[in-house]
Design a protein that fits this description.
This protein is of the alpha+beta class and 437 residues long. The protein contains 11 helices and 18 strands. The strands form 5 sheets. The chain has an 8-stranded mixed β-sheet with strand order 1-2-6-3-7-18-8-17, sandwiched between helices. A 4-stranded antiparallel β-sheet has the order 12-14-10-15, with helices on one face. A two-stranded antiparallel ribbon has the order 4-5.
Amino acid sequence: MDLMKISTTPRYAPRGAFLFVLMLLISGVVSAAEIPDFEATAKEFEKQTIKDRRWLHENPELSNREIKTQAYLAKALAEIPGITFVEGDWGTGLVAKLHGGKPGPLVAWRADMDALPITEDTDLSFRSTCRDTLRDGRAVGVMHACGHDLHMSIALGAIRTLAAVREDMPGTLLIIFQPAEETGDGAHDMLAAGLFSGENKPRCVLAFHDHPTIAYGQVGSCSGWSTANVDGFRLTVKGQGGHGAYPHRSIDPVSLAAKMVLAFNDIVAREIDVNHHAVISVGRIEGGAKGNVIPDEVRIEATVRTHDEDTRKAVRAKVERVVRSLAESVGAPEPELNYYFGTPAGYNDPELVEQARAVFRRVLGSENVITYPPGMGGEDFSRYGQVVPGFQFRIGVAPPGQENTMSLHSPQFNADERSVGLGMRLVAEVLWDQLNR
């Protein structure tokens, strides 16, 4: 009753409404600028963006070889009003800015460019028939089996959409087309070249990854840890070779290597807190040439995945201990262990996540906004998040009924192309929201 009286009294209503809106503006719940009709604006550029996607899919290039891709993107960006290029030693990457007509923050958007050494096996009219040669001399097919063609084209479409309303857009969008994500080198190299230095340091950085386990029309996000540290090791287990009929005259590196593999599993199962994720997976064991000959050595290669830095360091120390102690226990020579730290774990800034989820719900409806658990895959977008707050979300690209049958890095990967139009609108909406904060 009392609230009703206040809300209907002219003396109090304007002041109360003003204070309410002011509180919302301060808290970032609403923005000072009216949201443009991004659905209609994005629709104007959808056909061109689909053409971009198809050209990029048909012309994939391996990591740090994205020369044609770079040229295509540079030409497309140059045709967008309000774009300026940022000079730098970006290799095969590209950096540009879209300048808004009003004061505001610098917000960064990243899209990765490289493809994989995979021969495409789809029936698409624009499927890749490209081939290249790896450093070891092997000839391979090349394919955008991770959807980076979608990442690049949707970024172009979102930039065109924002450029159409740039007079009302506050701030500046820093656009990063990054090479060599698949090798884990691209983000590191661009940051080392000064990407976020001086006036080019953004308030935050955002990106998305297409995902075939999420249906078209849905978007997924994860707050906090989202991807894993991608580490690993190469191990040479040494012994003393001999005849398989007389193992007592040898030091068998095969049985020793087997003990080590089982011990690696025990590290995760019995020595790591179950509340801290960790994975040690041995993917390669090689040694010997004949069944009745005990070899001198066995080679092992493994990948190690963790989230937090303490667990990351602890796993390394435990692997070193196990390798050394097991070799000593059988009198074997000291093994050669090359343990390396690779791409760091990705961390989605919780505040950015909640802000973006509000946009997702407004655009897609709450029923199409899902939360996924932290994964053990890797992504070098994480390196940007170590410098400024970062957030990478997932856009569903699975055709109807294929959420559990399609996989990234597969020769049959075939995203639902409707995700291009929806993706460019969603990216534009999220960036507009950040630029208005």
